[in-house]
């Protein structure tokens, strides 16, 4: 059927084969009817979880939040690249500030695209932030829940007992690993994808058995609204969190974000060593200037070499040796000036010997590195290379062991990366992997220095360029946590843990949203220091992190064996067994099923050669025949 775009009294009607959207031109409230189920999703007008629409200038003395409902509106039909809809031009504050809002649907797909553009000329200061479009009302049915890709992912049922009032930025540690969120009811659900994902966060407000809202907060870009912002809502009947994750997986493929491990292995055969690996972090030098007296400890490269040899003797065939604190003054010190290698630990000669031994054992070697944290006592430090905020200040803090530091502007980082990697390779270090710290963990950053201005999007592009360079050296690459923009470049991450609330407890009900989208695109290590963490690594198809001083390694080898068989599999399904969220099951594209009961500590694995299908617990790890 052809798309209908027509005005009926105070509302615009956008109608295609799968959805009908009704836009109230006065209140800007949107109703969406999912046709197959007949379910109606209504946007909030006001109330809890519903913020004002725009942050606007007031008389040259500051800003205030106002509603778009108060503006004078002009309306016209629009056509745009296969989309059909209406554009509302809203003039606010005595018509000084123009805002354009587009509502569009495609010919057939159940999508509603909303774009807000507040970048036009204004008689005064520019618009800053926006909370439009407003949240859709979830409803109070106990079968309703919100879907949040915070870290590895979670759902928040309407009756979830914990209060949540928190903002989560896209591409940030403890934020959204992927630029979307969703909501599910008994009859239908929707997925909201940020098509302009670099300057946005969500604000989640949840009160048990009352209401859950997810507000979209478009952040200022270089001091103003900057550019049009767009979100795509996809409405579907009879969906769950798995369905929504799979819709985003296809979107990621269509946009070129998704890149499978198979492709990465074709580019660099060493990536195949991540299948069935064990991550072994070792520390060389700790030099902590945050305490008095300074804490200083060194373990030599030769001593660490002995430990790595012992891993082989214990039957660990495949490992990635992650080395912290190998630089001139140890871990989180003097970046980006980490060379020469720590002299107390053996310097260049012993690092080279260590790297050769790791290679001889058939393991990968990755060195920790950092090209964002810029230490004030580093020889290369220059305040002129640091990011500057909107009022001209440089950030200075002492969070980490190396003492006072600022933030190196990402536009200036690549030169330091090339300098260090070229010297490491020229000296003969057998560098087969690399861990570039924080790039996929700290939020994308802005810089207002006129000599090297940088938007968040440009920050992402500069970090990606560093990833491309390191990959070009034939190095297996990782950064700190999961996200989606890094997927084309990264082979593994340091970890991708479950979401944590501000009080340290689990946020919502953990579900493997990130693995449902990217399990076959990136390898995800897990801390397995508790029974629950171990079982989640098993369930989600990850690889374990092993302390080199661990005496009993069989349970780590077991997880590696499982990953060797499913590491390139798509995670096609996840479900809860029962209604208490204690037992879960994952299904992989090879047919492997993993059932875990977190209450009893037992698991069942089906479809992995050599693994008994009988119920097991952590005391019966010798299940490999």
Describe the overall structure.
This protein is an alpha+beta fold. The longest helix is centred in the last third of the chain and has 17 residues, at 456-472. The strands form 9 sheets. The chain has a 10-stranded antiparallel sheet with strand order 8-9-10-11-19-16-15-12-13-30, with helices on one face. The protein is built from 9 helices and 37 strands. A hairpin with a 4-residue loop joins strand 4 and strand 5 (39-42). Helix 3 packs parallel to helix 4 (347-360) and helix 5 (414-427) runs parallel beside helix 6 (456-472). The mean pLDDT is 93. The chain is globular, with a radius of gyration of 26 Å. The N and C termini lie far apart (59 Å). The chain has a domain at 4-254: Distorted Sandwich (Beta-galactosidase, Chain A, domain 5), CATH 2.70.98.10.
């Amino acid at each position: 059927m052809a798309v209908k775009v027509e005005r009926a009294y105070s509302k615009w009607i956008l109608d295609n084969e799968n959805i009908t959207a009704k836009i109230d031109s006065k209140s800007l409230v949107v109703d969406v009817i999912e046709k197959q189920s007949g379910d109606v999703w209504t946007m909030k007008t006001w109330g809890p979880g519903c913020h004002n629409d725009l942050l606007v200038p007031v008389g040259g003395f500051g800003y205030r939040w106002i509603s778009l409902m108060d503006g004078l509106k002009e309306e016209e039909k629009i056509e745009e690249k296969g989309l059909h809809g209406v554009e509302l031009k809203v003039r606010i504050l005595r018509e000084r500030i123009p805002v354009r809002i587009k509502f569009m649907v495609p010919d057939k797909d159940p999508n509603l695209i909303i774009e807000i553009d507040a970048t036009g000329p204004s008689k005064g200061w520019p618009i800053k932030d926006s909370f439009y479009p407003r949240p859709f009302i979830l409803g109070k049915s106990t079968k309703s829940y919100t879907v949040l890709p915070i870290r590895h992912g979670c759902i928040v049922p309407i009756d979830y007992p914990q209060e949540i009032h928190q903002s989560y930025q896209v591409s940030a540690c403890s934020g959204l690993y992927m630029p979307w969120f969703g909501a599910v009811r008994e009859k239908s659900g929707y997925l909201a994808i940020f098509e302009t994902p670099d300057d946005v966060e969500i604000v989640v407000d949840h009160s048990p058995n009352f209401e859950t809202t997810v507000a979209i907060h478009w952040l200022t870009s270089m001091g103003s609204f900057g550019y049009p912002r767009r979100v795509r809502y996809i409405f579907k009947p009879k969906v769950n969190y798995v369905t929504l994750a799979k819709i985003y997986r296809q979107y990621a493929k269509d946009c070129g974000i998704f890149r499978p491990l198979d492709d990465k292995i074709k580019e660099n055969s060493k990536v195949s060593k991540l299948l069935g690996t064990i991550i072994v972090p070792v520390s060389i030098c700790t030099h902590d200037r945050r305490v008095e007296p300074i804490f200083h400890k060194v373990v030599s490269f030769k001593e660490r070499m002995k430990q790595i040899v012992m891993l082989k003797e214990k039957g660990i065939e495949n490992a990635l040796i992650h080395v912290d604190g190998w630089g001139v003054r140890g871990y989180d010190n003097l970046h980006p000036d980490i060379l020469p290698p720590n002299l107390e630990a053996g310097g260049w000669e012993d690092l080279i010997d260590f790297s050769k031994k790791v290679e001889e054992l058939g393991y990968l070697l990755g060195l920790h590195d950092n090209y964002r944290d810029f230490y004030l006592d580093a020889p290369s430090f220059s305040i002129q290379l640091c990011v500057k905020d909107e009022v001209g200040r440089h950030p200075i803090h002492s969070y980490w062991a190396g003492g006072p530091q600022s933030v190196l502007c990402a536009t200036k980082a690549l030169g330091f990366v090339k300098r260090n990697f070229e010297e490491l390779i020229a000296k003969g270090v057998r560098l087969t992997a690399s861990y570039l710290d924080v790039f996929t963990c700290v939020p994308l950053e802005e810089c207002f220095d006129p000599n090297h201005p940088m938007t968040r999007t440009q920050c992402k592009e500069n970090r990606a360029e560093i990833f491309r360079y390191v990959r070009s050296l034939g190095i297996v690459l990782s950064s700190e946590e999961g996200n989606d923009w890094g997927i084309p470049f990264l082979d593994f991450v340091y970890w991708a843990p479950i979401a944590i609330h501000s009080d340290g407890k689990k946020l919502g009900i953990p579900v493997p949203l990130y693995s449902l989208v990217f399990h076959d695109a990136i390898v995800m290590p897990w801390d397995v220091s508790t029974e629950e963490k171990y079982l989640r690594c098993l369930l989600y198809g990850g690889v374990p992190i092993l302390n080199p001083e661990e005496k009993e390694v069989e349970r780590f080898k077991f997880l590696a064996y499982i990953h060797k068989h499913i590491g390139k599999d798509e995670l096609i399904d996840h479900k809860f067994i029962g209604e208490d969220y204690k037992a879960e099951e994952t299904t992989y594209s090879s047919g492997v099923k993993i059932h875990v009961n977190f209450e009893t500590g037992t698991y069942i694995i089906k479809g992995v050669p050599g693994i008994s299908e009988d119920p097991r617990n952590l005391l019966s790890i010798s299940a490999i025949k």
